[in-house]
Specification:
Length: 217
């Protein structure tokens, strides 16, 4: 993400929205890997992690690969992004892949401010979203997951970037983080039930990613 300018730290501000929509408008999306995260694919397809059925959410979904991957007849996924271009691109990709819109929908939503459906979400996937937020927003991020995931629901968090920033970056986003940063903001409402430090990773993110699953208490 070497050409991404400094992120602003208040999700309610116009500057925050124009920061992210501006990146999409200018096709400045260096985080986009064009595919499902290898760690998520491994967890679900190889390790056969059993997810609760119901509704799932991927906030900051970008082009939507991970939301499309998780969608199934028993798990209706919503990919949420504040950029209209991201949402349009994800919907187009979904149509190209002929995935029914009853399995997965992409919507322009601000993670911090939208009406949560009755019954909440049973699954959420967070990758390159926590790290995209200014560190001052982390507590709100944790509180929000506590609000929107129902008891017993699973939050899959692919922790990134751990230990060091990706090459050529000396300032966020992405912001450097640690497992402890997740514990600080999730432990009140979630219990860590799975961690795999040896998970598969994108080839240029080796050593920077660890997949975790947190259960809503
Ligand atoms: C670093 S990108 C990651 C995109 C995607 N997860 C991926 O890995 O390709 C962060 C995304 O979060 C979106 N975003 C930022 N703040 C958001 C918010 N409050 N609600 C929803 N989406 C947001 C941005 O528009 C951007 O698409």
């Amino acid at each position: 993400m070497n050409s991404v300018p400094k992120v602003v730290d208040n999700a309610n501000s116009d500057d925050y929205h124009s920061f992210w929509t501006g990146l999409w408008d200018n096709k400045n999306t260096p985080w986009d890997k064009g595919d499902v995260s290898p760690a998520l694919r491994e967890l679900i397809s190889e390790k056969k992690w059993q997810l609760p059925s119901g509704r799932g959410l991927v906030p900051g979904c970008g082009c939507g690969y991970d939301a499309m991957f998780l969608a199934s007849p028993s798990l209706h996924m919503t990919g949420a992004d504040i950029s209209p271009i991201a949402v349009e691109t994800a919907n187009k990709l979904r149509d190209e892949k002929q995935i029914p819109s009853s399995f997965v929908e992409f919507r322009k939503l601000d993670f911090f401010n939208f009406d949560v459906p009755e019954g909440k979400y049973q699954v959420a996937y967070d990758y390159t979203f926590f790290c995209a937020l200014h560190p001052s927003m982390r507590a709100k991020w944790g509180e929000r997951y506590g609000e929107i995931i129902s008891s017993g629901g699973h939050l899959i968090a692919l922790m990134f970037p751990l230990d060091k920033l990706p090459e050529n970056r000396d300032v966020g986003p992405p912001f450097l983080l640690s497992e402890e940063d997740y514990h600080k903001v999730l432990d009140d409402n979630f219990e860590l039930i799975h961690i795999d430090p040896k998970c598969k990773t994108h080839s240029d993110r080796v050593g920077l990613e660890v997949i975790t699953v947190w259960r809503r208490k």
